[in-house]
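User: Here's a protein and a ligand (magnesium ion). What would the complex look like?
Assistant: Let me lay out the input and then the predicted complex.
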Amino acid sequence: RPRVLSGMQPSAASLHLGNYLGALVNWVRTQDQYDAFFFVPDMHAITVPQDPAELREHTRRTAAQFIAGGIDVERSTLFVQSQVPEHAQLAWVLTCITGFGEASRMTQFKDKSSKGGLETAGVGLFTYPMLMAADILMYQPQGVPVGDDQRQHVELARDLANRFNHRFGETFVVPEAFIPESGARIYDLQNPTRKMSKSSESPAGLINILDEPKVIAKRIKSAVTDTDTVIAYDREGKPGVSNLLDILSAVTGRPVDQLVADYEGKMYGHLKVDVADAVVSALQPVRERTLELLDDPAELDRLLATGAAKARDVASETLETVYRNVGFLQLG
Ligand code: ATP
Ligand code: MG
């Protein structure tokens, strides 16, 4: 089976519906065709200031939601990045073959560092793409499913793989970035031209996997629509209604045009009730399973330790080749 690798930062207490429908649901599907590696990039999370207790909690929660959402720890490999020390070791080697100018051109660094200014931005924010290249190249995957915003980082990983292979001999598979098939893009319920995001100003536009069903239903019922009354799909003219239709379509698996036909002559209120019911029943089992897993952190930590050991089987082999090829002495 070809190999793929995906991760999601432990930056909040709960994943939101966009993370779930746009990423996790697709990850779950890839497990049939691929030898899939999933990880929680906690080392990336410390490139901006973090609270230690919160990071620990968010890391467990993120991993628990992966499992509850359908990541099968038997078939796939699920691990926490910091528990596989080879990531940091490979990142250093890759950092040493990255040009300073090349790293300076990464747009995410420019965006994030321009907010607080270069004086306060950590060097980790600058070397983040080299760690991400290590995350990827370590597992020799043929493909990396990523969002559009990560394309440039995967491009760098490809460049570094080619450069390393050229200088030190064939070592890495050069992976392709693929923008996932039909990952639904979900927008903020209060501001439906902005994507739903953990970093949105107000929680009112967010649907979190771990929210109580009552809260989810209430947020959907208060979603912004428009002053028209016709249920139609029009991303430009009717972003709020279109977002609700997209959500309902993603959750039920029914095409949008079929939904639109069904709702002919009905009111926004009808649509909202149905969306709320469908989302609540889709998320309910994920929420319950997550809470169960979090109830037994020792067992969860054990599952993650097993995942880290599986990941290290592959990672240590790659690192050994890399160390030998760059000229480090082998341990006796
Ligand atoms: P942040 O605001 O911190 O960037 P985020 O909510 O955008 O957080 P990420 O951790 O950046 O979440 O993304 C994790 C995964 O979820 C990625 O694969 C990303 O493409 C996907 N994703 C995030 N938001 C959405 C959304 N609104 N719709 C669809 N997919 C999304
Ligand atoms: Mg994001």
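Summary: Strands lie at 3-7, 35-40, 77-80, 143-145, 176-178.
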